[in-house]
Amino acid sequence: MEEGDEEYEYDTPTIPARVAFRRFWPLTRGLRKWLLVVWVCTILAALAETEAILLFGDLTDNALREGSLAAFWAPAVKWLGVAVVGAIVAYAGNSLAAWATERFVMRLRERVFDHVQQLPPHFFQRHRQGDLLSRLTSDVEAIETMVVSGLVGAASAAFSAIFYAAAAFWLRWDLAAATFVLAPLFWLAARRFSGSIKDVSREGRVADGAITSVVEESLGNIVLTQAYDRRDAERRRLGEEANAWFRASVRSTRLNEAYEQLVTVIETVCVLAVIGIGAWEISTGRMTLGQLLAFAAFLGYLYPPVRGLAQLGLTITAATAGAERLIEILDVRPSVTDPRRVADPPGRPDGTVEVRDVSFRYPGADRQALEGLSFSVHPGELVIITGPSGAGKSTVSKLLLRFYDPDAGEVLLDGVPVRDFPLARLREYLTLLPQETLVLHDTVRANIACGRPGASDQAIEEAARAADAHDFVVRLPEGYDTKIDPGSARLSGGQLQRLAIARAILRDAPVLVLDEPTTGLDAMAARRIVKPLRRLMAGRTTIMITHDLNLAPDADRILVVDQGRIVETGRHEELLAWGGAYARLHRSQNNALMDTGELRLPLFVEQPVPVSVPVSVPMPAAEYGGDGNGYGHDPYAAPAAAQDPWTRPVPDPYDPYAPYDPYGPRHWPGI
Ligand SMILES: Nc1ncnc2c1ncn2[C@@H]1O[C@H](COP(=O)(O)OP(=O)(O)OP(=O)(O)O)[C@@H](O)[C@H]1O
To answer: Where is the ABC transmembrane type-1 domain (predicted)?
Structure first.
């Protein structure tokens, strides 16, 4: 296992086949009547075969043994008729069965896919994508084997076995009884193998998911692989998973083969018993050769369904391993759902956003991501949320869009709690421009139009013009009809970002949440999107989460967040004049040192008390023991008088020789 694999949580439940069957049976609603028709066809086909075998015995005794052509015609015509009817019925039954099984697979796949799409972001961080893919493909098919094919197969095998057994009894009850004494051997053999087959099937499925994951992750990271020549490491990673799959699949074949061969031996014992008893009966004149041949033919037909029934038991047991993996996913509840009582605000909201005393901890995390956060933004205002990495900025956007609900406090849109809006409606009112540019594997036109499905070509083009995207789009080989994909080399990061802005312009939501709109762009590209961003923000409530303070002078308010709390609030100039955390962030950005561990320490020198700092007029330096370089103004810095031997002076972040202490400013390194 590679380092980091333990991040993925697998807690697959172990469940019996019966429970798994009951869980998925409701999905056959609407298909059941067709399954009934399939069974009827199966019964008719089995009846036709039974009749054909009896006619074969008749032909042997009356036409072949006597050598009479006259005795041939009547049973021959009857046999042909029965064969044609049997063929038609079998064709209809099998086609219908295929239709029903495929519909079931489609339905189940849609259901699981739909469910997975509602799961919270942290679910996808804990499950490898390749493993999810394998669950959506092969595990879904395994359930089909268990619920539909298994049921139809079991019913048809059972009917066939009953008919052939009845016909065998009718022909010679004593012979039939002798062979049926041996029938439980089939069942015992299947029972002996079922546990091991389920275990090995589970191992195979997990390995299958792991292989898909490694391939998917490796290809997704191809630049890293090639640039750092990680081919050997990646090959080893794949090799480990492939080995697990290899072992499971060889063991599975061995078990199945051992079972098959054991059953063949049991069958041979049965056939020899019949021939032995038959020879004795013919020698005493109590049986004809035709009867013995017909009886042997019945046995030939009887064994496959009996064998099939036992085999089916094994297949269903193996498929249960797939069911367990799907149930594990289906049992994960979405972190947010539509409200039972739906708020119906009259028309489009104005876009007043209020975050009221919100606290939030990610599921499974050991510390709060946000603590007692409060702020509000009015229509037309731009509020920038900034702060060091890991401060909780993106978490704010996740709560606004309701990817999660806060543990305490409330997020409100036009005074209505966001949890009272239907999710689809809420996300129509709040548009998110996430950190990574999301691209559909489709044309440029479709990528913009997904902001507002059904938008006219003219509206799409207008949005592209407003986003400064039109000019480069028309220069693409097929203009708006050029296909792009997430890894597209055709478009630069800045161009993709402008497409995302066009999409947001077209969506025309009253509230915009921009999460690091310039991340990953170079200075030129970042500057290139400032104008389109301004056009997008005009007249809307905008909350911009960013490290990039270029747009800060435009903001009506800046919130500086650290460790889940707002530590400073104010306008750009006010905060600069205040000389606190924001001023240091701003200076550090200008020094192009943003976001390094060294900088992180002196920016926020001590844990602040959980209050925001309304900034109006900067305090005189003397009052705060100011040292003239701005650091003395930090209300969170330890006052000089309070320093004891366990603390040390706050180092100057711009002093290249200042010591770097990874444990923070309150500890001496090494003590
Ligand atoms: N899915 C998650 N599960 C557990 N903890 C998480 C999860 N996502 C984020 N966190 C934690 O929550 C805290 C806030 O994260 P967040 O992504 O909001 O920070 P940020 O300020 O946006 O950082 P950055 O500027 O680097 O994007 C961090 O300590 C982070 O480790």
So the answer is: 40-318
Asked if the ipTM is above 0.85, the reply is yes
Beta bridge partners of 551: none
Residue 583 burial by CB count (10 A; 0-12/13-18/19+): exposed, middle or buried? buried
| 383 Cβ inside 6 Å of ligand 1 | no
Burial class (CB in 10 A: 0-12, 13-18, 19+), 617: exposed
Average pLDDT over residues 226-249: 85
Token pair belonging to 656: 């290249």
pLDDT of residue 610: 36
Alpha-carbon gap, residue 626 to 628, rounded angstroms: 6
Q: Where are the alpha helices (DSSP H) in 391-438?
A: 393-400, 423-429
- Angle value at C-alpha 196, between 192 and 201, nearest 5 degrees: 135
- Going from the Cα of 395 to the center of ligand 1, the distance in angstroms, rounded, reads 6
- Does residue 399's CB lie within 6 angstroms of at least one atom of ligand 1? no
Which is the closest atom of ligand 1 to the Cα of 547? 25
pLDDT tens digits along 264-295: 888 888 778 878 888 888 888 888 887 787 77
Residue nearest to atom 7 of ligand 1 (CA): 362
Per-residue CA distances from 281 to 275, 277, 285 (Å): 10, 6, 6
Contact of 615 with 570, CB cutoff 8 Å: yes
| 13 DSSP assignment | P
Q: Are the C-beta atoms of residues 660 and 595 closer than 8 Å to each other?
A: no
Per the DSSP assignment, residues forming a β-bridge with 430 are 511
Highest average pLDDT, of 422-426, 526-530, 559-563, comes from 559-563
| Tens digit of each residue's pLDDT (9 = 90 or more) over 7-33 | 444 456 677 778 888 888 898 888 889
Task: Tell me, in angstroms, the distance from the centre of ligand 1 to residue 586's CA.
Answer: 22
**Domain boundaries in the chain?**
13-172+291-334, 203-286, 353-440+508-592
How is residue 631 annotated by DSSP? G
Q: For residues 271 and 299, give the distance between their C-alpha atoms in angstroms, rounded to a whole number.
A: 8
Q: Among 395, 562, 588, name the best residue to mutate to test ligand 1's pocket (greatest count of ligand atoms within 8 A of Cβ).
A: 395
Element (H, E) at 353: strand 353-360
Q: Smallest Cα–Cα separation from 567: which of 616, 610, 615?
A: 610
CA of 509 to the centre of ligand 1 (A): 26
Instruction: Name the residue among 515, 510, 491, 504 with its Cα closest to residue 464.
Output: 504
